[in-house]
Amino acid sequence: MVKLIKEKKYHFEVPEGKKKERLDLFLTHSIENATRSKVQKLIDANLVTVNGVVVKANYQVKPNDVIEAVHPISPRPEDVEPEDIPLEIVYEDDYLLVVNKPAGMVAHPAYANYTGTLVNALLHHTKILSDLNEPGRPGIIHRLDKETSGLLVVAKDDFTHAKIAEQFSKRTVDREYHAVCWGKFKNRKGEIDSHIARSKKDRKKFSMSETEGKHALTLYEVLEEYEFTSYLKINLKTGRTHQIRVHLSGIGKPVFGDPTYGGRQVVCGSELTKIKFRVQNLLAIMQRQALHAKTIGFFHPAKKEKMFFNSELPDDMKLLIKKLRTTEF
Prior knowledge:
Elements: E1 7-13, E2 21-22, H1 23-30, H2 36-44, E3 48-50, E4 53-54, E5 60-61, E6 66-72, E7 89-92, E8 96-101, H3 118-125, E9 149-155, H4 158-170, E10 174-182, E11 189-198, E12 206-209, E13 214-225, E14 229-236, H5 243-250, H6 273-285, E15 291-300, E16 305-310, H7 315-324
Parallel strand pairs: 9-15
Antiparallel strand pairs: 1-6, 2-5, 3-4, 3-6, 7-8, 8-9, 10-14, 10-15, 11-12, 11-13, 13-14, 15-16
């Protein structure tokens, strides 16, 4: 595990006469070499307290407030110890691996997730991983949300890492996701085209926007329709944080089971007790968002050929779809 003793602690007592100021701005100005984004990450991770209480970034600092902050030092690769965690390796050669990440696993060590990550497992499996990233993220070219399952490409050397990262940047990597979402669609195929920006109400979330943030394009195809949900095949043309979850939620069809973007509420369908009971049972099966990165295709820099990899749906999604295909429960 990571050596957690590596951290810096800060203590501030707000002086008399201090004008009100947002907590994140106060700490940005008070901590040497701090950036607002890093300070906000500390606050989001509950590593900052005011008068002993965890508060939000927009808290207005007042005179006599006592502010304490803990800043963990980002782990270096040598600080992240290998852990014997089972890995489902779909493909491996001297240059890269393709791993089928299970839901619940974080890609790399970060605030509040220093052990049990994909990186910990990878370091137990191999000593050879690229180190182009910032410390603590060897081999990681791209990521999936913690509760999203599916395929990830991991680089063993810097050349491979750089070349595949370039493909992600140029949007030439083929990525197909499968998802179950609330509601039905008028057309079997369609696209969701918008900007995605960090939510102004909750910094941990994102939302669709007409002008703010970054452009995002999601293509979808309805594979099956059920009583009050749809089973989709999704292709990403951009790679924004939470893109699929934000886009589907933004059009009123959130990913089934998604606790962050409204997927654990009855979005459509009857309000009858029978339907509510059925939904409760389905949500009990799907403890996370019903989203899986099923297929990935990229050009192998060393082999000089396009390679495609596919994975089966995880058991929870298989069972969910099986139950949705019948009206009996």
